[in-house]
Write a structure and sequence with these properties.
- By secondary structure, the protein is of the alpha/beta class.
- It has twelve helices and 15 strands.
- Strand 13 and strand 14 form a beta hairpin.
- Helix 1 packs across helix 3, helix 2 packs antiparallel against helix 3 and helix 11 runs antiparallel to helix 12.
- The longest helix has about 50 residues.
- Catalyzes the Claisen rearrangement of chorismate to prephenate and the decarboxylation/dehydration of prephenate to phenylpyruvate.
- It catalyses: chorismate = prephenate; prephenate + H(+) = 3-phenylpyruvate + CO2 + H2O.
- Keywords: Amino-acid biosynthesis, Aromatic amino acid biosynthesis, Cytoplasm, Isomerase, Lyase, Multifunctional enzyme, Phenylalanine biosynthesis.
């Protein structure tokens, strides 16, 4: 009886202590809603001006400056920068919807890592189109069917994505931004772990989680599917089935996350390009993507690379693909630090072009420094 009274007294004391703190939170929430709507009123005016003057709704250079500013304002505060940035990205997503609804294309089906990257970049307030393959994303941007398209360009463990490189050779659209997405695999199921009879996923996540699966579910068969989203769909429909997939797939298909981050190596990131029909202004911390084919003479590639070295320009990545125009003819893809409007970058590109049969600038864009 005494224990029961003590518990009641503790509960009453807790509620009395929480009441004024909750009242403060409620008051702050009212202020936040007021400030958000005042901000939205300004956003509407920005949208009107952009429509009148033909300005782009999404400006990656402006986005970069806003996020840098709020991170600086947050220095030394309680909330981590990742939390602040996520809040601001959702606010900007709502702003896009107020200015003009944006359509974002990604490699489907819904719930894939490409979908997750798009959601983290553009938020929940824009419209999304899931497209069946990477060439369709480039085509949709070129035709104006979508405003922006996310294409996976390289993975830190698997290398470049060849359909994306091929698409870059044939598109009229520009690279306007890049996205870094850490790849985390999760075991999704609507049954308890001991009741799992089969595990579905795309072959790549199955390979990335091989050691974990062998340790935790050594006797459970693994079945390959066409995508992690298809695996999640099957797991949602089939009793005793589990899937390896994204947290977004769990939300979409109504699955519980049984185990998080089950990949054998935590060092796995995919980089995406955001394709658009617009140029991006400089931020002071930019990259430029190009491709080129060299003249057919000894030392031509070295001559091109020497130009960038002499101008002190760092090449952050270089790769090659067959040109698909004639046998043994190759196209080199390069990311370099700097913006096309920087004098030393512009000078280097002009000089490099003298050693090339073709050199095309794919776009300049803010350098992604933080994974989403």
């Amino acid at each position: 009886m005494t224990d029961s009274l003590d518990a009641q007294n503790d509960s009453r004391a807790l509620e009395e202590g929480l009441a004024p703190l909750r009242e403060q939170i409620d008051g702050l929430d009212r202020e936040l809603v007021e400030l958000l709507n005042r901000r939205a009123e300004v956003v509407v005016e920005v949208g009107k001006l952009k429509r009148d003057k033909g300005g782009a709704i999404y400006a990656p250079d402006r986005e970069q400056r806003v996020l840098e500013r709020v991170r600086a304002l947050n220095e030394g505060r309680l909330l981590p920068d990742t939390c602040i940035e996520a809040i601001w990205r959702e606010m900007m997503s709502g702003s896009f919807a107020l200015e003009r609804p944006l359509r974002i294309g990604y490699l489907g089906p819904p719930g894939t890592f490409s979908h997750l990257a798009a959601r983290r970049k553009f938020g929940a307030s824009v419209e999304y189109d899931n497209l069946a393959d990477i060439p369709l994303i480039f085509e949709a941007v070129d035709r104006g069917d979508i405003d922006y398209g996310l294409v996976p360009i390289e993975n830190s463990t698997e290398g470049f994505v060849t359909p994306s490189l091929d698409g870059l050779m044939n598109t009229r659209s520009r690279v306007c931004a890049e996205v870094l997405l850490p790849i985390h695999n999760n075991l999704l199921a609507n049954c308890d772990a001991p009741d799992i009879k089969v595990i579905y996923s795309h072959p790549q996540p199955l390979a990335q989680c091989r050691r974990w699966l062998s340790a935790q579910f050594p006797q459970v068969p693994r079945v390959a599917t066409t995508s992690t989203s298809k695996a999640a769909e099957q797991a949602a429909e089939e009793p005793g089935a589990a899937a390896i997939g994204t947290t977004l797939a769990a939300q979409i298909y109504g699955l519980a996350i049984q185990f998080e981050n089950i990949e054998d190596s935590g060092e796995n990131t995919t980089r995406f390009y955001v394709m658009a029909r617009q140029e991006t202004g400089p931020t002071g911390d930019d990259k430029t993507a190009i491709y080129f084919t060299t003249k057919h003479r000894s030392g031509a590639l070295a001559d091109v690379l020497d130009v960038f070295r002499d101008e002190g320009i760092n090449l952050t990545h270089i790769d090659k693909r067959p040109s698909q125009r004639k046998n043994w003819d190759y196209v080199f893809f390069v990311d370099l630090l700097g913006h096309i409007s920087d004098p030393h970058v512009s000078k280097a590109l002009s000089e490099a072009a003298e050693h090339c049969l073709e050199l095309r600038v794919l776009g300049s864009f803010p350098r992604a420094t933080q994974p989403l």
